[in-house]
Amino acid sequence: MNIYDISQKAGVSIATVSRVINGNSNVSEKTRKKVMAVIEQYDYTPNAFARGLGLNTMQTIGILCADSSDPYLASAIYYIEQMLHKEQYDSLLCCTGYNQEDKEKYLNLLLSKKVDSIILVGSNFVEADEEKNQYIKEAAKSVPIMLLNGAIDAPNIYSSLCDDYHATFQITQKLLKTGHERILYLYNSHSYSGKKKLKGFHDAYSEMGLKINESYIQYFVGDIHETRDFLVNLTKKGLTFDSIITSDDNLAVGALKFAKLKGISVPKDLSIIGYNNSMIATCCDPELTSIDNKLETICKNCVSTLMNIFNGNSVPFRSVFSAELVKRETTDF
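Below the sequence we write its predicted structure tokens.
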């Protein structure tokens, strides 16, 4: 039994059945009772596709993320799904990995499911090579595309993001102005967000007329203990530092492990600053000073922007939120 069978047995159109299922008031009471009697007789449960017929909406949002095991991305998905649920929207989640072909494949898969919109969670979906972003621009010709913490300038693509550039710029200048001379910047992503953070670090030095020793900018991908060992190896090569800014809290906890292993006092001899203000920042000892990138706020803005689009309201193509430094026990300024 499906919506087509219901319409035939009730002697009404598929659109009328859809309006009854969705509680649309533009149906007479007599017709509504006729349709409901058939639905009850055959114990029919409408699926998402059936609900969408006649109303031009599936009440379903597609969500793409690269890796749901990543704490930042997992938290974003949680917030978005909870907020969509409050708006009575379902969601379909696909984890793409970081391969370009897989990203395109899963986005097209969601489009084939007739979703009302697609949310791309994480700045890794935005490529420096504009050609690689073309599949997103093409998808935006069919449905609104929301980018969480990334931005592409094209019609029907909307962004909700944190100002990662100024957050890193300001904390770098703060350390420089409080006497830190050997600041290590440790990052693990070349994404849109990762590049903004790195530029903020560079520009903080430039504005103060200081030259950066490039050996103090280190790219590393690994777990907490691998990060610890990576820092140990840097010191073996003769690199010393009095502070570490990281692009992610996991890297910062790795730096804490390094300090403990080497007997370095934190924050007396080494200041450490994380990024994302995730749960892990308060699970370590000492608790981690971290930059709060307002993840819940940008997720809320992402969903509210979509709802306004669906309601025909005017919305900005890009909403940018300021980060906040949450000072705990790994800095002394």
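The radius of gyration is 25 Å.
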